[in-house]
Specification:
The complex is a heterodimer. In chain A, 43% of the residues lie in helices and 13% in strands. Chain A contains 22 helices and 20 strands. In chain A, helix 2 (82-94) runs antiparallel to helix 17 and helix 20 runs antiparallel to helix 21 (515-528). Chain A is globular and about 70 Å long. Chain B is mainly alpha-helical. Chain B folds into two domains: 8-73, no CATH class; 79-309, MetI-like fold (Orthogonal Bundle), CATH 1.10.3720. Chain B is 73% helix and 0% strand. Chain B is built from 16 helices and no strands. In chain B, helix 10 (181-189) packs across helix 11 (194-205). The longest helix of chain B has 33 residues, at 81-113. Chain B is globular, with a radius of gyration of 26 Å. Chain B starts with a helix and ends in a 6-residue tail after the last helix. Classes of the chains: A alpha+beta, B mainly alpha. At the A-B interface, helix 1, helix 3, helix 13, strand 13 and helix 14 of A face helix 3, helix 6, helix 7, helix 14 and helix 15 of B.
Chain lengths: 549, 310
């Protein structure tokens, strides 16, 4: 009897304890994420999110142990970076900075997942994150309060520790990184200074084209605008000859859904990431939009003409049927071009790509432009770095970035490794990569800060940077430069529309379905899934942006 | 006499728990087809891993590739240290994790099995609750990385999966079914302490149950990439599964974002080929597939114990 009563009491006690534990856990989980737990062995609390600390992390002392800055890079592969990091740390000491660096190398997915989790869980061990408009997204993380405002009037880290870097990067790139974050409207990231314009080009396998007896210049004008080449009868004739020459398994037109038609129809830029809208512009001057408020891309007349043409090519057997399968299309597109098994394709060009593509594919690859290069928020924020709000070394992080963005020796070490081990320096200032050097250490060159600090490679030539500057100067800012779409109010609609795109978009974009009927069904499905609300939200935000400006 | 035999045969024929010959054939065909469906994807992966890159590019996947090649395996083996180090990490985590997990799970299950343990009910409810409510991603990461400081250590791959409630419950059920309480009492009367009773009396009896749970645990550790994604940034500590997952997902990321990234920003030659990824998948599956025969004898016993009451 006593045991029974004791057992009941124990049960009650257990229940109470468990209930208390659950309530405690619930309350703890609901607490704001602004007080990350300090790492063991440290007594300095990290700066709270949404607050401006009275005494922000001080710069590292000149004497004593060096401050270690952990920086998370995008892309590249580094299986053994020990000698590079040792050389970089030595250079930092030479520059009078008592700082060492500890890099983390990641591919795109890892950056998207792991780095985002690190930020969302208040990871104090990472000081600087790569960020951009296509991975570890800059704008959402900045507005969410994951990044430190660098030009905060109460603690202007840029003014204190980043003056040289501020001067080295063009002002409009800093402007493109200005967003409305928890610490007010300001700069929450450091722009990567590389090619900042978005240039759509044809990708022509001239080795095959000339082999078919067709002169490149009869079809394309390297100095002009070539978007309408798709309607040229010679374009079709070239593909027919290729088909006859190389057989049924050769598909001359390499297709990728989600942008092909947009590139040719001057219907860029997709401001929403939903692959649905067009913002039609004059191909000669993308700063001149033909409509200030974007509409549905498949209702744009030039886009429909492109779809008609593609459908015709599909029926002729010029396009690989696997291009219509969403899961396979991108692989087919990539593999075709890398093997040189194509005649015409499209691409998003970056400076220097002609040499790189021709060498890797073993062909004469040429890239005549569709329209003039566009500078948009998406292209300007394509790559950059941000200091984590959870970093305990914010001042040191900005000091390091300032040195890295302005010191050629440090920049060369971090991008091309150690002289004598990974490369040699030539009399004309260029670097020659040593055999095997890139096997162990190969960062993504354009994701390494300020490209204009690097010494050019011998393959690029000593005038590389001058050419690069001229290339950038040709970029034309679009009307909405600085605008970033905030999807918060239409997330449900965007999710539904994305599913509709998967169902209809791919096959339409590669010409697999009859365009008129296909677009009607596509448009009806989009409107039934909230497209109008999505469009209205985009228009509202754009109108606000234009009004504010 | 003969009529009695015929009657007996008829009786046996229509016993309620016996299936007719056609039904037996049908069931075998069905189960065989199901087994084939299970094994086909793996066979397909093996075929793809032996398909040449050109054949894959031109014709896509096929059970009958136009051209066979061992290039993918050659490429996998030229990965050198990266591959073997990851193999080592996976083996170490699987072996150490499984042993530790078995030890603590058995201790927990044994406590729940012993009726004379006063906190038995409390701990039974305690572990049951963790089956229903999870801590969630953010608290888990914060505890393991920030509080315990286990980031970039192999312990981060072992400790979070050390005690799985499902495994504890299987073991407890096994103990209840296979070990009579009188046996424990006898051991005690013979002067055996608690650990002696557990290790010398109980463990030999529950070997089949332990083997079953050990296999499930080992598979869990071997296949895990999630914990590595959360806690490991040092590439020298990547387990094999995470290496493959990273390859696959990074390629998918490039495909999805090709127009945003731009060709020039991608080193296509550095991206692992389809064949290489399939070859890695084969290399990953082989060791754990080889472990099955060693456990099979116990697993059948482990799964059927308690199914028939004598």
């Amino acid at each position: 009897m006593e045991t029974k009563i004791g057992g009941k009491k124990m049960k009650k006690l257990s229940m109470i304890v468990i209930s208390l534990l659950l309530v405690f856990a619930l309350i703890a989980a609901c607490a704001p994420a602004d007080t990350p737990a300090p790492a063991p062995g440290t007594d300095t609390a990290p700066p709270a999110q949404n607050e401006t600390p009275d005494d922000p992390t001080p710069p590292p002392a000149v004497d004593g142990p060096a401050t270690e800055i952990t920086i998370w890079f995008m892309g590249g592969s580094a299986t053994d970076d020990s000698d590079v990091i040792a050389a970089a740390n030595a250079r930092l000491q030479e520059l009078g900075l008592n700082i060492t660096i500890n890099p983390i190398w990641s591919g795109g997915w890892s950056m998207q997942e792991e780095a985002q989790i690190a930020l969302d869980t208040g990871d104090t061990s990472v000081d600087i994150f790569w960020t951009g408009s296509w991975g570890l997204l800059y704008a959402p993380n900045a507005t969410r309060g994951n990044f430190v405002r660098l030009d905060d009037p109460n603690n202007d880290l840029l003014a204190q520790y980043g003056q040289d870097m501020l001067a080295a990067v063009p002002e409009f790139l800093w402007d493109a990184f200005a967003v409305n974050g928890p610490q007010g409207f300001g700069i929450y990231g450091i722009p990567g200074y590389k090619d900042f314009a978005q240039l759509y080009t044809w990708d022509v396998n001239n080795t095959r084209l000339s082999g078919l007896g067709i002169d490149f210049d009869d079809l394309f004008d390297m100095d002009g605008i070539n978007y309408d080449v798709i309607f040229d009868p010679l374009f079709e004739e070239a593909m027919q000859r290729a088909k006859d020459e190389y057989g049924p398994t050769f598909f001359p037109l390499a297709m990728e859904g989600g942008g092909w038609a947009r590139m040719i129809s001057n219907g860029d830029t997709d401001l929403t990431g939903a692959d649905l809208m067009h913002f039609t512009f004059d191909p000669n001057n993308p700063a001149e939009p033909t409509d200030f408020l974007p509409g549905l891309a498949i209702e744009n007349e030039l886009t429909l003409r492109v779809y008609d043409r593609l459908h015709h090519f599909w029926n002729q057997g010029f396009i690989d049927p696997r291009a219509a399968i969403p899961g396979e299309a991108a692989s087919v597109f990539i593999d075709q071009r890398e093997a040189g098994e194509y005649l015409f394709a499209t691409t998003v060009y970056a400076y220097g790509h002609t040499t790189q593509a021709s060498a890797s594919r073993g062909i004469d690859a040429r890239f005549p432009r569709m329209s003039n290069p566009i500078v948009s928020t998406v292209s300007a924020t394509g790559s950059g770095f941000a200091v984590s709000v959870y970093s305990r070394n914010q001042a040191a992080a900005v000091q390091f970035m300032n040195a890295w963005y302005t010191d050629q020796t440090l920049a060369d070490i971090l991008v091309e490794g150690v002289e004598g081990v990974h490369h040699t320096r030539n009399a004309d200032g260029t670097l020659t990569r040593l055999p095997g050097g890139r096997d162990r250490y190969a960062p993504w060159r354009f994701g390494m800060g300020n490209v204009f600090t690097f010494s050019p490679l011998d393959t690029e030539g000593p005038d590389y940077l001058e050419g690069f500057l001229a290339y950038n100067a040709a970029g034309i800012p679009v009307t909405f430069l600085g605008f970033t779409f905030d999807p918060a109010n239409v997330l449900t609609e965007m999710s539904a529309l994305s599913a509709v795109w998967d169902e209809f978009g791919q096959s339409l974009e590669v010409g697999a379905v009859e365009p008129r009927a296909g677009t009607e069904a596509f448009a009806a499905a989009l409107r039934a899934n909230g497209f109008d609300r999505f469009e209205a939200e985009l228009h509202r935000q754009l109108e606000e942006f234009f009004a504010a400006r | 006499m003969s009529s009695t035999v015929i009657n007996n045969k008829k009786k046996r024929k229509f016993r309620s728990n016996q299936v007719s010959r056609p039904a037996e054939v049908a069931i075998n065909v069905l189960v065989g087809a199901f087994a084939l469906l299970c094994i086909l994807p793996f066979i397909f992966i093996i075929i793809i891993s032996f398909t040449s890159a050109d054949s894959l590019r031109i014709y896509g996947y096929s059970f009958f590739p136009a051209e066979l090649s061992t290039d993918s395996f050659a490429a996998a083996f030229t990965m050198g240290n990266v591959l073997w180090r990851s193999y080592g990490v996976s083996f170490l985590v699987t072996v150490v994790g499984t042993l530790l997990s078995m030890f603590v799970s058995l201790l927990y299950a044994y406590g729940l099995y012993r009726r004379d343990y006063p906190l038995r009910n409390f701990f039974a409810i305690f572990i049951f609750i963790t089956m229903i409510f999870g801590g969630g991603l953010v608290p888990t990461v914060m505890v393991i990385r920030n509080l315990l400081g286990l980031g970039d250590t192999l312990w981060a791959l072992i400790i979070p999966s050390l005690i799985l409630p499902f495994h504890v419950i299987i073991l407890r059920t096994f103990l209840s079914s296979a070990v009579p309480e009188t046996l424990i009492e006898s051991a005690r009367l013979d002067g055996a302490g608690e650990f002696r009773t557990l290790l010398s009396i109980v463990v030999p009896i529950v070997k089949p149950g332990l083997a079953t749970v050990a296999l499930l645990t080992a598979i869990g550790y071997w296949n895990d990439w999630w914990l590595a994604m959360l806690f490991i940034r040092d590439r020298t500590l990547f387990p094999l599964q995470y290496l493959l997952m990273e390859f696959q997902q990074n390629v998918d990321f490039v495909r999805r974002n090709l127009q945003m990234i731009g060709d020039a920003n991608i080193d296509f030659a550095a991206l692992p080929s389809e064949g290489l990824r399939m070859a890695l998948a084969v290399l990953i599956v082989l060791p754990i597939a080889c472990a099955y025969p060693f456990f099979q004898r116990y697993i059948v016993t482990g799964l059927t114990v308690g199914a028939v009451k004598g």
